[in-house]
């Protein structure tokens, strides 16, 4: 579903609030939110889009990480296994992006970046 400008801003808020968001991405999201309706909005949005493109994981990257020793170290073996299973199920249903709240919000932002076209 296509989002309008307001919908994209809501997704940026979700991204910034997500427990799984990378600190650098959170900072850029918050910078953009602070720049909304100012002369810096367009520049802050372009910076945010570049960071989102860099940070949002694919479903395959999530599966690979959660099945690795590093994933087990971050999440614990049980939670990493649960996440890997959930990711595999999502992939089987056609999901291409990591299923965490930050990546899902990032996906929406990327898919709807035209809402800020000038």
How would you explain this protein's 3D organization?
With 118 residues, the protein is mainly α. It folds into two domains: 1-56 and 102-112, no CATH class; 58-96, no CATH class. Helix content is 70%, strand content 0%. It has seven helices and no strands. It has helices at residues 5-17, 23-35, 41-55, 59-66, 69-75, 77-92, 101-111. Helix 2 packs antiparallel against helix 3 (41-55). The mean pLDDT is 94.
Write out key terms for the chains shown:
118 residues; mainly alpha; 2 domains; 7 helices; 70% helix
In short:
Helix content is about 70%, strand content about 0%.
User: How much helix, percentage-wise, in residues?
Assistant: over 70%
* Strand tally: 0
Mean pLDDT: 94
Low-confidence sequence ranges = none
Enumerate how many helices there are, as a single number: 7
* Terminal residue distance: 21 Å
Structural class: mainly alpha
Strand content: under 5%
Largest sheet: none
Domain count, please report it.
2
- Series of H and E elements: HHHHHHH
Radius of gyration, whole Å: 15 Å
The coarse overall form would be: elongated
């Amino acid at each position: 579903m296509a989002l309008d400008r307001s919908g994209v801003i809501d997704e940026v808020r979700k991204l910034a609030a997500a427990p799984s968001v990378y600190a650098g991405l959170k900072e850029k999201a918050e910078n953009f939110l602070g720049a909304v309706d100012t002369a810096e909005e367009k520049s802050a949005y372009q910076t945010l889009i570049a960071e989102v493109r860099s940070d949002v994981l694919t479903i395959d990257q999530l599966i690979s990480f959660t099945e690795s020793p590093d994933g087990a170290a971050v999440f614990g073996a049980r939670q990493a296994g649960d996440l890997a299973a959930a990711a595999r199920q999502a992939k089987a249903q056609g999901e291409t992006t990591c299923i965490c709240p930050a990546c899902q919000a990032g996906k929406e932002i990327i898919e709807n970046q035209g809402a800020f076209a000038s």
